[in-house]
Amino acid sequence: MTLDLSQPRVMAILNVTPDSFYAGSRMSCAEAVETRVREAVDEGCDLVDVGGYSSRPGADEVSPEEEWRRVKLGVATVRRLAPGLPVSVDTFRSEVAARALDEFGPLIINDISAGELDARMLATVASYDVPYVAMHMKGDPKTMQSLTDYRRDIVTEVVDYFRRRVAAMLEAGIRAGQIVLDPGFGFAKTADQNFELLAGLPSLCADGYPVLAGLSRKSMIYRTLGTTPDEALAGTVALGWECLRQGASILRVHDVREAVDTVRLFRAFAGRGV
């Protein structure tokens, strides 16, 4: 399985969780999951990202078995309703990744820890030869927001981090063409650092790996505006455009229709047509 990123893509968030930071994305019953998948497909998403473990700041631990139950529900629903749609599994556990791949065949693995929270993850991804999204984070969801000190500017830190992690991925056998990088907006970063990182995305893109931007309804938007995640759609659209302008290949979003429209308008503006 490979990802076609010849043009920007929209990744729909499917949180099969009761505690994700944005209340509008929380769903734990089969009916709610099915409604969300149908909506995302109808609105034109290019792929769906299924998560069974909330990575919001301070999130509680979820057992591997419970995470797998949630992931299985989400992926099975997408496979049933949209068999040809690429599916991503948002997990840092190699056990969950392997079970999903064995159960459902080729999937994308989206790992918030770039392989650092589970030493077996990189080898697992390599053995299945599937796309791998590696995100920058320090610590884990419980500790990350206490780890926002960086020795140098954050763009340099993140670029250097990914160079080290990509080397580890390649050494583990993951093909270069399967690697996608996620700068980790909101993970071990202050609001100012998030905006600095957004402005520095071209430095991350310069190494030739596609970049996923996930800032949908995050605190860098709603805290800056003095609002809430529920009121952060306009800010998400605005920064989504900037992510595309700075070189991002994938927008990971809660609001699919608005992101699809943003991509279409960006492509038209950039002279690529619609």
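Second entry:
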Amino acid sequence: MQTAIEATGHAVGGAEAAAPADTAGIRRIEIRDLRDALSKGLDDFRASRTDVLFLCLIYPAAGLFLAHLAFGYDLLPLIFPMASGFALLGPVAAIGLYEMSRRRERGLEATWADALGVIRSPAFGAIAVLGLYLLAAFLLWLLVAYGIFQATLGPEPPASVGAFVQAVFGTAAGWAMIAIGMGVGFLFAVVVLTVSVVSFPILLDRDIGLYPAIGTSIRAVLANPVPMAAWGLIVAAGLVVGTIPLFIGLAVVMPVLGHATWHLYRRLVAR
């Protein structure tokens, strides 16, 4: 029992020396740093293309499964919220990609098996807890999105795909659902980006604990509002492009964005 409590305390607070305060320095970045991060992310993807594609096939598979689930249980209105929800779960799904970029940066071998080695990280407990937070945010987003549908086009489920599309784009209630959904979804995305964009990479890089990692991520975003807003738009646009062709594009978009996020972290946080 005591061991479990100590392990939980370590996951939240990190190593004893780092627990009192997070001293990671935050750098100011510019838009060109985003281009550099994307370029390096693409290089990482090219260098480990086979391993990364193997690791990332789960993204389109999960997307197709969710779409099938929605069609099968009259949850058609949740297809877009589920697709856009990849932005909320993306940082969790990309944790292995961060590890691959970290290893490649150090001149080490970086395969899909090495990516799974993240479970041996001293900070894995904190990573898992943060992942649960994002999963909770994703589920809450789905509940809110369904509530928006109920308040606008509901409560009856759509009779067919065609009828649903016509109702969404051909009625005032449909456009109200779009406007409200996009506004609320934007707020969810901003919160998740702020909390997680640096948290996951720094937990792999330094055993500083969950809350200091979240604090560092928040400080990094607040210090760079314009570049980080641009980064959020890049991520959102990439995920939209990746989901359009039956989610297949996510097998490429997700790894490139995941690797790029590691390099963005390197730009944001001083070593």
